[in-house]
């Protein structure tokens, strides 16, 4: 029997490995989400104190041989010790690869030589203002150059912060190919196993010719920043939220119009709505669906740049009361849920949305238009299964730095987020193991 992948319990339990056959959805504040745990874990509990011991255990499991039917299946060992898993780090707005200094060092320390950790540099600083699509294309070109130079690569993952998550979502649609990847590895992740019972019509493919494993975002505005409290530093004051949309392009260029959903002509859907579907611009949902594991980390409060709804892809009614108790070994990580795919026809741009968009562009009365767009984007993105990780810096010395704390932008100032980075590292390690372990 192969090692079962991770799925964590709610905040008042220690995180454990779920048993494949016994995990059952439990009640939660969000109707689309569930979380589960089991005492019969084959690995040790994922607490910070046992990380090195777990790493040795995972390595031993990965080198094992099992039997699939009557034929023995053995994992492939990289004798040259060359990296075969590309992990791309994507920074946010007005930022640079240096934002990843701490996280990159942690990843290199704990993931080993099989990973090539690459911090993207193609969209530094003012280049983040040129539009999500333009930045996404530059990122895609950059990734392809790395892949071409490193012949040993077989798998690919992304970890992106803030606006970088939208750049990465656009980039993977450019890099996506529907050709099925067949690496001979039979492992699978929990979110993929749970999805199999409710598969969408999308088939898995490759990203830059590699097998897609993890797509992880931290405090990314997946639904844009238009609407009540989606841009928290405006404190939910409606007059400010109306005024900021038309002036945003003056400060952050074309990216601002896309984040506030005012881009394009009235009769054309905004880019973020198009990115919640497969359309003529790209196979956005198919590219996301190709990844074994999709994870969104979201600050439940104190994030002045990105609201809880937009970063966790939830409706207001799905949020509930923000958890406060940290998971064992991961300070400030307060809750982890798996949200299975919700079947739907996908996002629409109905005639009433066209009219509402025209009104919003002329008068900045954004309430009706935003409500329509937010619901349609959620419907599109929730057609896929997501692991949703809530983070709460309420007890940190500087909680208002939550947006930078979540990925430890600067170790000396944002070190409250080291537990979140540890959680990301362990997520990546577990998915790496499940991708190379055979199943019975």
Automatic annotation (TrEMBL):
InterPro entries: AB_hydrolase_fold, DUF676_lipase-like, Lipase-like. Transmembrane segments: none annotated. Residues 81-310 form the DUF676 domain. Gene3D superfamilies: alpha/beta hydrolase. Pfam families: DUF676. This is Lipase YDR444W. It comes from Cicer arietinum (Chickpea).
């Amino acid at each position: 029997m192969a090692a079962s992948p991770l799925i964590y319990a709610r905040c008042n339990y220690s995180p454990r490995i779920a048993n494949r056959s016994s995990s059952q959805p439990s009640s939660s504040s969000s109707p689309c989400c569930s979380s589960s745990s089991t005492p019969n874990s084959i690995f040790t509990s994922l607490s910070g104190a046992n990380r090195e011991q777990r790493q040795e255990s995972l390595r031993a499991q990965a080198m094992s041989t099992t039997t699939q039917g009557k034929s023995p299946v053995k994992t492939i060992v990289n004798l040259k010790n060359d990296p075969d898993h590309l992990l791309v780090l994507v920074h946010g707005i007005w930022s640079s690869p240096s934002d990843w200094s701490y996280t990159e060092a942690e990843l290199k320390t704990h993931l080993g030589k099989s990973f090539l950790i690459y911090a993207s540099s193609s969209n530094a600083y003012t280049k983040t203002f040129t539009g999500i699509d333009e930045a996404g294309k530059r990122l895609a070109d950059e990734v392809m150059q790395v892949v071409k130079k490193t012949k040993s690569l077989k798998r690919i993952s992304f970890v992106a912060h803030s606006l970088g998550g939208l750049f990465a979502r656009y980039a993977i649609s450019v890099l996506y190919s529907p050709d099925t990847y067949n690496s001979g590895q039979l492992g699978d992740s929990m979110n993929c196993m749970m999805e199999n019972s409710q598969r969408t019509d999308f088939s898995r493919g490759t990203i830059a010719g590699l097998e897609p494993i993890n797509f992880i975002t931290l405090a990314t505005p997946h639904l844009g920043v238009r609407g009540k409290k989606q841009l928290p530093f405006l404190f939910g004051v409606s007059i400010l939220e109306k005024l900021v949309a038309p002036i945003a392009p003056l400060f952050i260029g074309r990216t601002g119009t896309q984040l506030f959903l005012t881009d394009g002509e009235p009769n054309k859907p905004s880019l973020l709505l198009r990115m919640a579907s497969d359309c003529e611009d790209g196979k956005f949902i198919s590219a996301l669906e190709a990844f074994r594991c999709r994870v969104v980390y979201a600050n439940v409060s104190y994030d002045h740049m990105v609201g809880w709804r937009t970063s966790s892809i939830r409706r207001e009614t799905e949020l509930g009361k923000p958890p406060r108790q940290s998971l064992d070994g991961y300070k400030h990580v307060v809750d982890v849920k798996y949200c299975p795919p919700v079947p739907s026809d996908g996002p629409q741009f109905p005639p009433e949305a066209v009219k509402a968009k025209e009104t919003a562009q002329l008068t900045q009365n954004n309430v009706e238009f935003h409500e329509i767009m937010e619901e349609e984007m959620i419907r599109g993105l929730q057609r896929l299964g997501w692991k949703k990780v809530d983070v709460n810096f309420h007890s940190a010395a500087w909680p208002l730095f939550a947006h930078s704390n979540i990925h430890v932008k600067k170790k000396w100032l944002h070190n409250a987020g080291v537990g979140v980075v540890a959680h990301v590292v362990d997520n990546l390690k577990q998915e790496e193991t499940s991708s190379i372990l055979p199943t019975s």
